[in-house]
Amino acid sequence: MIIEEKHKQAYEGSINLIKSLLAGPEYNSIGFFASSEDKQNYKRLFARDAFWIGMASLVSEESLLVDGFKTSLDTLAAHQREDGAIPSNVSPDGKVSYGIINPRIDPTTLFVIGCVQLYKKLRDKSILDEYYGPVTRAINYLENNYVNEDTGLLFTPRAGNWADEYMQQGFVLYDEVLWHIALRSYADILEIKNKSEASYYREKSEHVKELIGEKFWRDEGYFLHFFFAKDKSDTDFTQPHNIFDAFGNILALISGVATREQSAEIIRFIDDLSRNKYPLIPAHFPFFPEDIFKCHKLHQYRFKEYVGHYHNGGLWCWYTGLYAAYLSKMGDRERALKFLNGIIKANKEKKDGKNYFEYHAGKKAEVFLKVRHDNGIDLFLSFKIAEIAKAFKSTVRLLYQGKKVYADNDMALRSLNIRKGEEVKFNAIGPDAEASLKSIAGISSDEGNCFDHKEIIVKGSRPGGAPYLGVSAAAHIIAHRSFYDLTCPFYFL
Hints:
The protein has helices at residues 5-20, 47-60, 63-78, 106-122, 125-145, 173-193, 195-216, 246-255, 260-273, 290-296, 317-329, 333-348, 379-391, 410-415, 433-441, 470-484, and strands at residues 45-46, 89-90, 96-97, 170-172, 217-218, 222-228, 240-245, 281-282, 284-285, 315-316, 359-360, 364-371, 395-400, 403-406, 423-429, 444-445, 448-449, 451-453, 457-459, 463-464. By secondary structure, it is of the alpha+beta class. It folds into 2 domains: 5-359 and 463-484, Glycosyltransferase (Alpha/alpha barrel), CATH 1.50.10; 363-459, 2-Layer Sandwich (Histidine-containing Protein, Chain: A). Strands 12, 13, 14, 15, 18 and 19 form a 6-stranded antiparallel β-sheet that branches. Strands 4, 5, 6, 7 and 9 form a 5-stranded antiparallel β-sheet that branches. It has a 3-stranded antiparallel β-sheet with strand order 1-2-3.
């Protein structure tokens, strides 16, 4: 297949960035850094980032990068704790973190999957012999500390996975799908190393898959984010958080957890949610007021969970690249190309002369409205505004005299005592930001239009977080190779 020149150049740029992340002898050759910039502790080997960079390395078939992935796994295995836990990150001088607020769970599941995928790529039995012990200890660590005995599902403590500054705790979709894949991967190598146990772990994997389908699916057209649980023994499943988690749902597509019918519904939901200039997919939806996050104090360096930012609706190349790869493998090339181009556009976007950023802020629109309604923002008008705000996917807020309220709360709107003739500002963040403000500006009553309004200003997304991020380049490599080489294996399946 002929590769477009702009795609060829962008791909080479992503490959070169990944190569620049390989730690040299001056950094004790520990493997892949998360970023080439020493910002927010990212110039370290992070297990999670190294895994996805490793998956991109395998599909790239660049021997230097494949060797770098092997080195990364070696470093993580060398710092595996006695109980089997894999580090969250390792610094060049050997400092190790397993998590700050609580242990991270996904470094251990991803380590298991990564070791098995490296073996499947190289078919070198010495790799299997080398990693069999660490992989077995990793599986046992999760079984002994985080698996619920009644369900077989994996408990995730607060701040226990990639969305470590997001509000989640319990049985989390993203981690359950990874647990399913890790168990299946372990069963694959047991067929060679210890065949008598292979069927046991394969059955456990299938059981987890079935439970995800039974417990997590929602009629809205996606798998919910998580069920809250106090600890691993809590299994009443009475506190579902019906949030859309992009990473978890995309992993459900990739791994086959989602049925054909469910996959079609998830794709439709993502289409509706990803209407932005790239396009990229928001991490979670709906978005939450930042005050909720601030009171939980999960941030480590500075607060980032503003509406439409970071995990709270930020747009990420990372999992969007996996989604594009999935679409290519399913033969949906038109959609796949749309998201591949979105990743390229986002990775090229510069701030302070740098690119390949961690995430991008969601689309924002704002408008100034002068109240014409005789009674100001009264019961009638507040109800109409709230009704419209609830009907759209974007988060809408009203700003007045230094105060800010959410437009879906009619009581909060009325509490501002806004009278006829006063000017207010509305802003909206999300996929239909402009349309939501247009609807509010167009509210009318028997008297006529309730507002005089100026032009709605749409502000595009912008980069955020750390630059030169390896997983942003890795996402592009995976999406590109899957689109242009239909024989390219999907290594993390």
